[in-house]
Amino acid sequence: MQLLTMRGVQMMAVVSLVTGGACEKKGEKNASVANVAPGVPELVAKPASVNIATLSAPALLASVPADTPYLITAFEAIPLEYYAKLKQALGPAMGNAVDQFRALAKDDDADRLISAIQDELAGKLDAKGLESLGFNAKPRFALYGLGLAPVVFRIEVRDDKVVLATIQRIASRAGITLPAVETKDGRSFWRISPDRDATGILSLADNQLVAAFGRTADVERQLGLILGSEKPQVSMAGGKQLLELMAKHHFGPHMIGFVDTQKLAMQGMAFAGRTPAPQCTSEIDRLSSRVPRMLFGYSTLNAKVASGGMVIELAPDLVTELRAARAEVPGLAEAVASQPMLAFSFAGHVERMRKLALDAAAAMRRFGDACQLADLSRASAEAGDTLSKPVPAALGGGIGALLVAQEILFAAGGGGMPERVEGFAAIAAPDARSLYAFWESMTPQIAAFGVKPDGKVYPVTGVPVPFALHAAVGQRTIVVGVGGTGKGHAERLVTAKATGMSPFIVMSYDYGQLLHLQSEVNKLTDDPADPTAAMRADLNAAVGAMFGRAAGTLDVGDHGLAFWATMEMK
Q1: Which of 23, 263, 298, 499 is least crowded, fewest Cβ atoms below 10 Å from its Cβ?
Q2: Among 95-99, 114-118, 300-304, 505-509, which is the least confidently predicted range?
Q3: Closest CA to 491 of 499, 480, 502
Q4: Which of 187-201, 408-422, 468-482 ranks highest by mean pLDDT?
Q5: How far apart are CA 4 and CA 555, in angstroms?
Q6: What is the DSSP letter of 186?
């Protein structure tokens, strides 16, 4: 059994690495902050500009049951130019990383396998070369559950018989003995059993590569559905439901996925061998009507930009309550427009958010009690006890916080403290002076900073840092400016006005600058004898050279809570 398990792991490695080589080659209209300056990516993904009437569903959806609780699939493959850019930017660094891994691992079996794969793929990492190995240069895929499990992954290949020959060549070259081939209903497959309770399946048929994993009894019971010799009574064939979700939430064709809360809960109970009582089923139905689905996908994906996100669908009244829980962040648009190394903001009406969280904890406790889930009931009760405590009056209104880092510089051999920092932080509240007084009462040493709540800018004293600090407390804003430009930041922000409600969270950053900063910090903290330090530095430099600015928001949109992000590619 141990030998079979090792062979199974080796077989999985062959297939996953080869199919990985085969791949080498935003949203809610109300969840938006305007594109504040040329060259700054929008803080949310643009709605996908695709005519869904022209899309053709992949044939492999005919094997996906309509009642699956989760699914990730694609109507169009990820563009080849996207992979080409990844290969160009990351290829040398990844090659060095593989070489270092092989040197460190000192594993002859792994070394032979990596060498065999590299030899097989040499000169073939383009569309023509991949297709010569049997792979599809533009594959579509589906990842889904037959119930909660087994988990099944299907991906298109150009010619399953040629892929099989490719895998066999790699295994032979690496000295790997593949597991014995089994057949069912005329379909050949490998069975990989890490232990008696779990089984993996690998199969090549119908120009698809299929991998599945789950409990042994479940895999055996649904083996026909896994292999494709049986079809679900009702399937996702044609993709009608998915196309409707793409249109509703503005996702593009390169990836669309969902988790259905009602099906996930019911099939999770079945997976656990439990038949839910009527009161449990009622609670599941009630909760799923409040939070029907979670969806995710890309809206734009090409060689210049990747945009996408996730939407948690909510009942209309919850959408209304979340919109009422937003707040303002003065200076946010200007901060993002300046293209700093990092800008981060949070905004929310604290008391309203507390009440929403308290209602959620109560709902989860009812669900736990009704379905006899003791751990969930206990955790929800504890959360409810914490959330039931009132928020201090100074913190209970709409709070907006903004943190901007324009530059952080560490001196060589200077220890953990940066020698230069430029940036600022601000907190907005309905009565900032009362908020400052509250903090002063909780932390008396704040009084030693020498800042008075009169709207004027003061140098901050008594803080042992090698850069200047200035602060001001105005009627609506508390601000701290850092570095040589700190005083100017404080003067400008203490009287700044918000231009409207902000998303709950906003991030905007320069990916390359942050990775460079990480590498500089690593130089101070890494063990000089660590052989992986240079590998990490190379990868950081390669990734930083490939990606430009990135941005994202967490906000409430037309259909629920939405996170959208955009990443520029250089």
Answers
A1: 499
A2: 95-99
A3: 480
A4: 468-482
A5: 50
A6: T
| Residues 544, 550: Cα–Cα separation, whole Å | 12
Q: What is the pLDDT of residues 458-467, one digit of tens each?
A: 999 888 888 8
Which element (helix H / strand E) includes 308?
Answer: strand 305-313
Question: Distance between CA atoms of 218 and 343, rounded to whole angstroms?
Answer: 48
Q: Give which of 272, 269, 271, 275 is closest to 288, Cα–Cα.
A: 269
Q: How far is CA 159 from the centre of its chain?
A: 33
Please answer whether residues 335 and 493 qualify as being in contact, where contact means their C-beta atoms are separated by less than 8 angstroms.
Answer: no
For the chain, how far is it from start to end, CA to CA, in angstroms? 50
* Cβ proximity of 451 and 471 under 8 Å: yes
pLDDT of residue 32 exceeding 50: no
Q: How far apart are CA 545 and CA 565, in angstroms?
A: 19
CA distances from 212 to 166, 209, 219, 220, 545 (A): 20, 10, 8, 11, 37
263 phi, psi to nearest 5 deg: -70, -40
**E strands along 363-517, which residues?**
398-409, 420-428, 457-459, 469-473, 477-482, 501-502, 505-510
Which tokens hold the place of 241?
């439901």
Cis, bond preceding 92 (omega within 30 deg of 0): no
pTM (two decimals): 0.85
Q: Summarize pLDDT for 327-336 with one digit per residue, the tens.
A: 999 888 888 8
pLDDT tens digits, 505-517: 999 999 888 888 8
Rounded Cα distance, 274 and 270, in Å: 5
